[in-house]
Amino acid sequence: MKITKDLYQGSLALLTDFYQLTMAYAYWKSGKAEQEAIFNLFFRKNPFQSGFTIAAGLEYVIDFCNNFTFNKGDLDYLSEMKNSDGTVVFESDFIEYLREMRFTCDLEAVEEGTVIFPHTPLIKVKGPLIQCQLLETALLNITNFQTLIATKAARVALAAKGDSVLEFGLRRAQGIDGALAASRASFIGGCSATSNVMAGKLFGIPVSGTHAHSWIMSFDTELEAFKAYADAFPDKCIFLVDTYDTINGIRNAIEVGKILREKGKEMLGVRIDSGDLAYFSNIAREMLDEAGFEEAKVVASNDLDEHIITSLKIQDASVSIWGVGTKLVTAYDQPALGAVYKLAAIKNETGDWEPKVKVSQQSIKINVPGEHQVSRFLKNGRAVADMIFLPEYRKGKISATIIDPIDPTKRKRISFEDFEEVSLLKPIFKKGKQVYNCPEINVIKQKTQDNLLHFDKTHKRLTNPHVYPVGLEENLYQIRTDLVFKMKNYDKE
Ligand SMILES: Nc1ncnc2c1ncn2[C@@H]1O[C@H](COP(=O)(O)OP(=O)(O)OP(=O)(O)O)[C@@H](O)[C@H]1O
Ligand SMILES: O=P(O)(O)OC[C@H]1O[C@H](OP(=O)(O)OP(=O)(O)O)[C@H](O)[C@@H]1O
Ligand SMILES: O=C(O)c1cccnc1
Ligand SMILES: [Mg+2]
Question: Which of 114, 213, 371, 411 is the most buried (most CB within 10 A)?
Fold first, then answer.
């Protein structure tokens, strides 16, 4: 197999768990395949103990839905699958059904770069049960990872307090697609550029970088190495100064900076990649200033994350560009976001929608039933609460109480006329036809920044953030509670 040519063969339809296909077959066999259903994709906890999450991955989801067909190779593979007794797993009429199947669902989603919170649907899919089911695994795969990394990047960028953050993660990322998706999501979350050249080409993200220790080590002396680099890139010199002795390295960088200046060029800065980054960055700053290089930047790297950057800021480190790799793109302290995809309603034989809940011992795991919507309420540009509601219970109402889905003692009264109301779920597909234009990646990145400005800094602090209120409108809360009691048969005891 040639990875560059053969891996996906133009189709991602089999990027799913086997049980989705066995359920799809069983839906088809029992005549339920075309029954209308609504599924919601949501998570239950912000990652990294964060007070917020940044939505990302929608452009991939849209592409997946637009190409949601089984090609000949996929169908040949499925038709050759055998049970242990030698019979085929999927009968040929089902294979033909899959061959004809096209994406015909309605899909709504929260736009990429939107600040979101637990229990809010990021994606709502409405359509034939079989299609909704077959989308589950890929939608979760895409959304969980990119949302996780965009959130991590936003935290790193918040810690950097406006300094540039360069994403350097490719070498340690989770494989090829993990790296590409991570570079994209990191840019959305707040990084300024990536070292990943393929991500630059594919997504239009700025690429940038410095040079490695190997460049220095390939010469007899560090000074020769800096001079040769300056000859090759007189406008792009950020010298890595810690290969042998950091202070001597800064001295050599200044010497070459002076040579560049004589030629009318400016050294951009130095990079420090080991040792005490507060101590050495401050020494670098002093030495550079004293030599007349006040504009030269100090870049720091080496296993950085939002917490080390915060600590270095507190220590008054003189760093103004942060290179962040491993801990960002691998989401080191929380390797997965736990978003799930749950059936919220199904249309019965009489054409009525029946809300559905998955009952759990843990109330955090009980989903929100019905075809709900989400509104964010803002006052003077400041977000005060998100409300999950059934539109039929909004009509004619001027206010509502929202109730925390986990702790019903937490409530908030909202008079609608006091607030600007923003609907978070946007129409993306109608009957399988795309009705949404994906914004440019720079626009998405800006959306993250603009959205974060709507939230008080208490929700954005990195540890023990103040919890932003998200609640179920009281009628929806009651419907959910009644449904849980009904499914648990409490009313029969
Ligand atoms: N002043 C500082 N305050 C807090 N953390 C720091 C400070 N300076 C460096 N660090 C962090 O401490 C860790 C140092 O790791 P480690 O000791 O493995 O690296 P090193 O020995 O300095 O460098 P290397 O192993 O790459 O030569 C890194 O995560 C780095 O970002
Ligand atoms: O530390 P990260 O956040 O992952 O950022 C990327 C790292 O990759 C490079 O070196 P590499 O780690 O390959 O080698 P080194 O640690 O020996 O310098 C670079 O010098 C950074 O240290
Ligand atoms: O350009 C850099 O400095 C760079 C790129 C990848 C990893 N570490 C550093
Ligand atoms: Mg390293």
Answer: 114
- pTM of the prediction? 0.97
Which ligand is closest to the CA of 329, given by its number?
2
Domains of the chain: 3-150+335-492 (3.20.140.10), 158-329 (3.20.20.70)
What's 369's DSSP letter?
P
DSSP helix/strand/coil, 277: helix
In angstroms, what is the span from residue 106 Cα to ligand 3's centroid? 43
Q: Which two tokens stand for residue 381?
A: 């540009």
Ligand 1 lined by 302 (C-beta under 6 Å): yes
Q: What is the dihedral of CA 89, 92, 98, 99, to 10 degrees?
A: 140
Question: Which residue from 274, 305, 310, 311 has its CB within 8 A of the most atoms of ligand 1, so it is best to mutate?
Answer: 274
User: How far are the Cα atoms of 82, 211, 241, 242 from residue 271, in angstroms, in the given order?
Assistant: 58, 9, 6, 8
Q: What is the ipTM of this complex?
A: 0.97
User: What whole-number distance in Å separates Cα of residue 108 and Cα of residue 116?
Assistant: 15
> What is the pLDDT at residue 5?
79
The structure tokens listed for 372 are 């709900």
pLDDT tens for 258-305 read 999 999 999 999 999 999 999 999 999 999 999 999 999 999 999 999
| Index of the ligand 2 atom closest to the CA of residue 213 | 18
At 224 the pLDDT is 98
Question: What is the three-class DSSP state of 166?
Answer: strand
412: β partners: 402
pLDDT, tens only, 314-330: 999 999 999 999 999 99
Residue 288 tokens, joined: 């550079």
* Per-residue tokens: 457: 């800094």
Using CB distances shorter than 6 Å, the residues near ligand 2 are 168, 171-172, 273, 301-304, 323-327
- Mutation to probe ligand 3, out of 164, 166, 167, 168 (largest number of atoms < 8 A from CB): 168
